[in-house]
Design goal:
The chain is globular. The chain is built from 2 helices and 6 strands. 14% of the residues lie in helices and 33% in strands. Strands 1, 2, 3, 4, 5 and 6 form a 6-stranded antiparallel beta sheet that branches. The protein starts with 14 loop residues before the first helix and ends in an 11-residue tail after the last strand.
Length: 105
């Protein structure tokens, strides 16, 4: 397999190959429409943040996390106040971490 950007050979388990496989036949918006836990082939939608700020002219950070054989990859995007998402952000390997938060109710 070759990188779509530079044309160099890449291994099937590289982040570039997994990104290519993730959107080869499916768009980022298609993934965003599905519930966490949905699986297509070896790629599973593990988590997502798709909260939109409805103040006119505002933007919000959005992301999708995919699990592939115990490895996790995050795709970043920006949503505008009209609900449009630009998925032009990074696609990178990430590690799951447990965090403790304090809330006051």
């Amino acid at each position: 397999m070759n990188c779509r950007t530079c044309g160099q050979a890449i291994t099937p388990d590289s982040a570039a190959a997994i990104e290519h496989e993730t959107v080869e036949k499916i768009s980022w918006n298609w993934w965003a429409d599905y519930k966490v836990g949905y699986q297509h082939g070896r790629i599973k939608l593990e988590a997502k943040k798709l909260e939109f700020n409805d103040w006119q002219g505002s933007e919000s950070d959005v992301w999708l996390v995919f699990e592939v054989h115990g490895r996790y990859f995050k795709k970043y995007g920006i949503a505008d106040s009209y609900g449009n998402v630009n998925w032009g952000g990074l696609f990178e390997e990430v590690q799951p971490k447990t965090k403790t938060i304090t809330v006051f109710e």
